[in-house]
TrEMBL record, chain A:
Keywords carried by this UniProt record: Membrane, Transmembrane, Transmembrane helix
Spans traversing the lipid bilayer: 45-62, 68-84, 124-143, 163-186
Keyword Transmembrane attached: yes
Name of the featured protein: Uncharacterized protein
TrEMBL record, chain B:
UniProt KW keywords: Sigma factor, Transcription, Transcription regulation
Protein's name according to its UniProt entry: RNA polymerase sigma-70 factor, ECF subfamily
Gene3D superfamilies linked to this entry: 1.10.1740.10, Winged helix-like DNA-binding domain superfamily/Winged helix DNA-binding domain
Domain of life: Bacteria
Amino acid sequence: MKKSIETIWKEGFLKNDPLVAPKLNNLYSQKSIDIVDKFRRMYKINRVAILAFAFIILPLSFLVKIPYMGIGMFVLFNILAAIAQKFSRSLNKLDKTESSYQYLISFDNWVKEMVSTNTKLSRFLYPYVFITMTGGFWFGSIGGDIPGNTFLNHFIERFPDSYLVLGFPLILLVVAFTIISLLAYFGGQIGNFDLNLVYGRILKKLDEMLADMDELTA
Amino acid sequence: MSSDFYTTFILPYSGIIIKICRAYTNTQEDFEDYYQEVCLHIWRSHASFREQSEWSTWVYRISLNVCLTLLKKKKKHNFVSNSLPEEAIEDSRSFVDESLNQLYQAIRQLSDVDRAVIMLYLEEKSYQEIAEIIGTNPNNIGVRIKRIKERLKKLLDEKVN
């Protein structure tokens, strides 16, 4: 090597035409498609997982003798998968030929609609899960006995002064009703928290991109 | 990003960005992507510039950080998709000066951090500035540069022979 690397560097750039900067255009075009595609993949995995879980829990619940819980959850997961499928279809309809800004706005609107449905649904979903789980265990079978009856007998033996409504301790009804009410009241927030756990990062990125693009187009 | 911002704060330093982006990419398409990404990062984070260093130093830092991050992502993707490693792909672009082409090719065979160090050295940054930009101890920079230059010399000699 005759020349030092410092000389090659200096002379090399002197001999060349001035360095031409590439034009800046469509800064976000690929990114906007990428973020929606990533979300679409995650949404599909989630949907498949819900369905898989539905078909696992059903036979399993019969095996461990809590079939009501299994049937209840199976129905719930299928409804959730059907709703997700409906949303997935509308997500696939987003027009990729639009400008990246418009494409992201359409996606953002889709996300808002999905979150709003999820919030409304969660107000029923969590109380339903509680009722199904409790009912499932209550009317299940452990060693030939019905766990609900066994528990009730123990409870009445321990607290014989309990006020009964149709043979059922009032205090237990109050506790169950309180839990169901709380789940219905906070269901939306729990649902959104749940959604954030799965999609939080990507949705935050979407917000940042939209804010940037708002500024870029201003 | 307003065209004023681009003309005032980025365009005069585009040479720096171009040189760095070229060292970390093999194709014109990648190069343009990296360049755009660096410009975008400069624009997005210019509010956090505290004037504790020169604007050009800051541009170097952002350019290197963005290139290293993008390269890392690309390597991860290549690993997953089982593609060829970055170094195995021939550079599809060329400068008029053949020695410069060879030097760039040799630089691209260095590790990611060594590439950053030598680029800054060739741009006549002081050891202190290099250490500041890379985030290392200035005492080690001299030794590192000596080692990198020896490696580059060897790679260039191999090319000639």
